[in-house]
Amino acid sequence: MRLDVVTIFPDYFAPLQLSLVGKAIDKGIIEVAVHDLRDWTHDRHNTVDDTPYGGGAGMVMKPEPWGEALDALEAADDRPMTIVVPTPAGRPFTQALAYELAARQRLVFACGRYEGIDQRVIDHCAERYELVEVSLGDYVLNGGEVAALAVTEAVVRLLPGVVGNPESLVEESHSPEHPLLEYPNYTKPPVWRGREVPEILFSGHHANVAKWRLEQATERTRARRPDLLDEA
Ligand code: SAM
After folding, report:
1. In terms of Cα–Cα distance, which of 79, 61, 78 is closest to 6?
2. What is the pLDDT of residues 86-140, one digit of tens each?
3. What does the alpha-carbon distance between residue 74 and residue 18 come to, in Å, rounded to a whole number?
4. CA-based, 20 to 30 A from 65: which of 30, 45, 197, 208?
């Protein structure tokens, strides 16, 4: 999979070199290219924003640099582009959407700033490419960079060879096979500050441990996210 990120803050993406995503790059599972939108401006100040038509507060990202950036990225690689536009007005980002995006060959993140990107760029993308507008949640960030990082991490860990034990993808919260939140986890020591690890986990009885974990997961989901049980 190839990932392109277009942003006015390329430095935001330094963490992609770390941890599992960094290893996925090293192993050749993904290629990542981060681009500065200002490289596609032509004025002395590398302007990417302007005042909104119709008036109002804030600035809007100009369409011309975005158009040139998308044309250049399209010409750079044959794989079909899925454009991911982070926006609070987008489709809520879920594990199901992460699996959908993990099946694509090439994701291009268009990171908005200010009041967002001129709508004509979004309409152009919808016509020419696959477009997914994604919201990280019902709150407003300053820019799309954090959302692009979150989506990248959630998608890349689903690609074969990224997570050491693929079983851990099945058992975890929000997995399509297992719609419950994950059960509580424990490790050594057996007693910490007077708190004991549940006895059942020392039993070595796999079926009983699995039953206990399922009960814990169900209870946790009922208490914290009853909406997930309704969906299941
Ligand atoms: N004026 C926009 C609105 O009210 O919908 C908010 C613009 S926000 C200050 C700037 C940029 O941050 C957006 O263009 C988007 O890229 C990103 N952003 C903000 N909140 C987000 C969210 N919840 N999910 C994804 N991206 C978000």
Report:
1. 61
2. 999 999 999 999 999 999 999 999 999 999 999 999 999 999 999 999 999 999 9
3. 27
4. 30
